[in-house]
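User: Hey, quick favor. My workstation is busy. Could you predict this chain's structure for me?
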Amino acid sequence: MQPFGLYRHLWEYRDCPVVLDDLDGLYAESHCVRLLKSLCNTQPVRRIHWLTNITANSSDTPASFCTTSSVILIANEWRTLNANVRALEDRAIILHFAPSNEEVHRKVADWCADREVYDFVARCLPMISTLSMRYYAKASRLKKAGLGDWRNSLLQMILPDRPAAIALALQLDADLTKKQRVARFMANSGQSRATYFRIKRQLPSLPEPKIAASDFPASGDAG
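Assistant: No problem, here it is.
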């Protein structure tokens, strides 16, 4: 959203609750920060200004208006770029939401209907730095599309190191012998036998998933 577009929306929805999501680029824009500073001021009633020829010659957008809107700003990350952003921070109550992988995994059980996908991700948790709910939905779509190696495809999304993803997928396939795992690793990754065993030594222990049957939905939409 451009700054004047934000101003128009704040005018159109004045006195309504305002939620601005994906704010990462918006708060780096100086004109947007100026608007947000006024909008997020601590007085119950705030006056917002846009004093340019656009509003001077407009019949439907005033040069200033008052609002009582409460505001929530949501961003993937927050960086204090300058004094104006610091002033915006000073007007806010800042909450950092950073659930653990285990918390995310438990929450997914509320909607993920594919037990095989859910259990597979559970076994991979020790290797995942930051878990996303989208991983479960992506895996379910790949599986429904008939992709036989959906596990390997998912691991390559989760793990930035492709050889490590291939090695982990092979370790999770209980039907393969050690010799078959080595051969498939070399064929799929282009890496050597020695590399396979080096990566294997670095993989954490991958226990069977532990989740009570009552914690998992009997039916539902997997995404």
